[in-house]
């Protein structure tokens, strides 16, 4: 995968793998009622079996894009096509079965008296019979490792537990795609690692494609198949973590900073005057290379 730059003068939302496409955001724009531009001529896609990370500075449009992926917001211009159905043309029935969205603030998602009620809410809403919904909810809580929380009051859960329960609530609806806004923000390292493992499992074990909006570039480097750089309401470049994070000009243009792992390797190579063919993006890769030294 090489870096693809989106040329604002020749916008095209095509890509090389349309047969695997689940989401197609076709030059979509959204202006909020107060005149703020949320997204502007956004071209974006999600394929089957991939984890895509949206990376960009505050206010670049990541959350606004995520809220468009299951019809919470509608574009004021352009189209959003989910699994062949145009959201803009009103084909929105059952959209929550296709794309589940997990908000940055888990509180926005949890409102029922108990965790079980909360996780059952989505399946019941999709028309499942109560027993079936209960089974789906229990399975989802088990899958996220939160089975012991089943009878608890959502209000009294810790931030990390709330995040797990809100993921279970979405997973219980068995969507094809899950979009998460800042999935690891405000979590301690243990809970972050748990959510990170869960995101990878959603893809590898359940065949769910995942979109994450994140400021944690180290996380994106570890788990994403594709990085989409977002600026001024649009994806302006995309590529593999290795290609994107080693392009310092591009990262600068995105208003971001290279991940520490990348910076450490580049500094090490400079200090050693060695070759730079390898491009580690995870700490495990970095440590392995530091053991052999650059250019050896
Ligand atoms: N409900 C809203 N009403 C008005 N403007 C909004 C609303 N939500 C977002 N915006 C504006 O839309 C633009 C994009 O915001 P958005 O929250 O999508 O960015 P973001 O990349 O997710 O930012 P962050 O990383 O800080 O979460 C910003 O200028 C923001 O002020």
From TrEMBL:
Indicate whether Heme appears among the record's keywords.
Answer: no
User: What kind of membrane protein is this, topologically?
Assistant: Peripheral membrane protein
Keywords recorded for this protein, A-Z: ATP-binding, Cell membrane, Membrane, Nucleotide-binding, Translocase, Transport
The highest taxon in the source lineage is Archaea
Tell me a GO cellular component. Answer: ATP-binding cassette (ABC) transporter complex
Principal localisation: membrane
Q: Where is the ABC transporter domain?
A: 23-257
- Kindly list the GO molecular function terms attached to this UniProt entry: ATP binding; ATP hydrolysis activity; ATPase-coupled transmembrane transporter activity
**What subcellular compartments does it reside in?**
Cell membrane
Q: Which family does it belong to?
A: Belongs to the ABC transporter superfamily.
| Function of the molecule | Probably part of an ABC transporter complex. Responsible for energy coupling to the transport system.
Name the chain's protein.
ABC-type cobalt transport system, ATPase component
